[in-house]
Amino acid sequence: MPRLITIPALVDPHVHFRTPGGEHKEDWNTGTQAALAGGVTTVFDMPNTNPPTTTLELVRAKKTMIEKTLTEYKRVLRYYFYLGATATNLAEIARCQNEIIGVKLFMGASTGNLQVEDDVVVEEIFRECGRLGIVLAIHCEDEAVLQQAKSDFVGTPTARDHGRLRPRTAAITALQKAIQWSEKYQTRVYVLHVSTAEEIELIKAAKAKGIAIFAEVTPHHLFLNETDLEHLGNLGKMNPPLRTATDQAALWSGIHDGTVDTIGTDHAPHTLEEKNLDYAQAPSGVPGIETYLALLLDANHRGLISLDEITRLTRTNIQRIFNLPENNDTVTIDLELVKIIRNEDMLTKCKWSPFAGKTLNGWPILAQIKD
Ligand code: DOR
Ligand code: ZN
Q1: Is 266 a catalytic residue?
Q2: Dihedral through CA 127, CA 128, CA 133, CA 137, nearest 10?
Q3: 223-239: pLDDT as tens digits
């Protein structure tokens, strides 16, 4: 028997829809369909595109391209952009302030070429975002620690070594710096994809001191851990990497005690062909928007999270942190629908999911955009 109820539609504060330059992985026609299927009516799109979205002109050009695609395919989705921070575009932050949801800063190299390694420059970015009251969203992995881990590694790494090449200390070191600068410049800091128990502790302590820091966790860090690399191989390669079961438990505790503010999917599609390359060549990132709500509803079914917590983490907290306008978007869900995640059912252009084969109890049926 179906058990249908209606809840607020989700916001995904972290997606890579790949326009411009990565349209063979995703475009705004397929991305929109995947979002709506996942219960999402609002997305915040990342700037590690090709070219990267790092100036006001590039922000506007990206918007024009997206509007063209949405019109052509008659799709509707609410969307916002992050501006990518670089070593040389500090002045763009003020220029873009009315057209972006926040600034994205990579403290270490990941997909694309957007990392800012010089701490003097990074501090300036914190200062400018603090001055303007713009949210600074951070990929916390310290480049120097990543480089050291790479040079320490002996032999030929495989997907199972991804966590050794991108150790937890990289995330912890970067976060420690971010907390200091957030305090110094009163910058509202949004820590993307928190993956370790230590980060949860650091953020809890920073919040207790009144520092304006917010934490996001991803579904893949909540529902997978490093043991899944055995069967996933490169399909489980993402940055930051999958961690231990202990870390996973810490993320869940962080959800329940309020340290974790949001769940963002870090929807980062790459084609299977790209993922099937050797470990070193295969790009990091996994798609996630389409399974976002279903995984959480299944967790609700298993008693891991309440529906109120789901709405808080996927909607109301995001609205509050980013000062989003209100809307009445809804998603109808069926709490009794049991279905297996299958690659061939995916609407994302890359047509695979790291969760393929999992049976979930509870699925979105219809997401609706309303005024
Ligand atoms: O795994 C990741 N994939 N981490 C990132 O930081 C970027 C993302 C992507 O764009 O593919
Ligand atoms: Zn990302």
Answers
A1: yes
A2: -80
A3: 999 999 999 999 999 99
